Amino acid sequence: MVERQAAFRNVTERVQRDQEQRALSRIATLVASGGDPAAVFDAVAEQVARLFEATVGAVVRFDAGHEAPGGDVVGAWTVPGYEPPERSLDLTAPVTVSGALWGAVGASFPDELIPNGLEERLARFADLVSLAISNAQTVEELARQATTDAVTAR
Prior knowledge:
The protein contains three helices and four strands. The chain has about 150 residues and is of the alpha+beta class. It has a single domain (about 10-145), classed as GAF domain (Beta-Lactamase, 2-Layer Sandwich).
C-alpha cells in the first residue's frame, strides 16, 4: 500500500507583494540616480499599468489644498497600440506626502472591468509611491541645503 499526501498553499498574495516591491525598487533606483521627475512619474504610471494588468496607468498631481478629484496628469503610460480612453481613470488611490494629499495613482481597464481585489493592492502601491516621492523630495532638499549658503541664501 502506497500512501500519498499533498499540501497546497496559495502564494498569490506573496507573489503580488514581491512584484510590487520589485516595481518600487525600479522606481527608487530611478529616483536615486537623479532621474527627471517627469521620467519618474512616467515610470510609476508604467509600473501601475503592468502590475495591475491595466491598459493605462497614470500619476495625477493635485494643487496644494486641492481635495476634489482632478489635477494635472504628470505621468502616463498606455499599452502599446491601445488608444487611451477619453474618460477618467477607473481606479485611483491617493498619494500623500508629509501628511498632505499630493495626488493619486490610477489605472484604466478594458471595458471598465476592474479585477477583484485591486483596490487594496493599488492603495498599498500608492503608499509605496508616497514614500518614494517623500524620499526624492528629501534628497532634493538636502542637495539644495548642501549647495546654499545659509547667510546669503545663494
